[in-house]
Amino acid sequence: MKFFQITVTEIEGKPNEILAKVYRQNNMERAASFVDKGEITMEDRLGEGKCTECGNTEWDVKPFTYNDYMNGGNGKPNIECRNCGYITHL
Asked: What is the pLDDT of residues 32-62, one digit of tens each?
């Protein structure tokens, strides 16, 4: 049996810079290029960034795994509300 600990670090930058970083970290260069050109914005993806369940504005970016893909994932990075656990995607 093995256990792994994940270290959480804040992704710094303006909202669109953060979106482009997250897309690049998930090998989504084409989507990141749309952000760079202003064709996709964080506001387009998340509105005001508030969780629809509790109103929180802090999110954890979840790692995309092979299991996510096999279970019908759309390839977009999942994010989880740090307060209530609600999951959506960027």
From this structure: 899 999 998 999 988 999 999 999 999 999 8
Beta bridge partners of 60: 80
Q: Taken in order 56, 60, 65, 67, is the CA torsion positive or negative? A: negative
The residue with tokens 């952000």 is: 35
Q: Which of 27, 48, 4, 63 is nearest to 80 (CA)?
A: 63
* The pTM of the whole model exceeds 0.85: no
Q: Give the pLDDT band (50/70/90) at residue 65.
A: low
**CB-facing half-sphere around the CA of 85: CA atoms within 13 A:** 0
Neighbouring CB atoms inside 10 A of 51's CB total 20
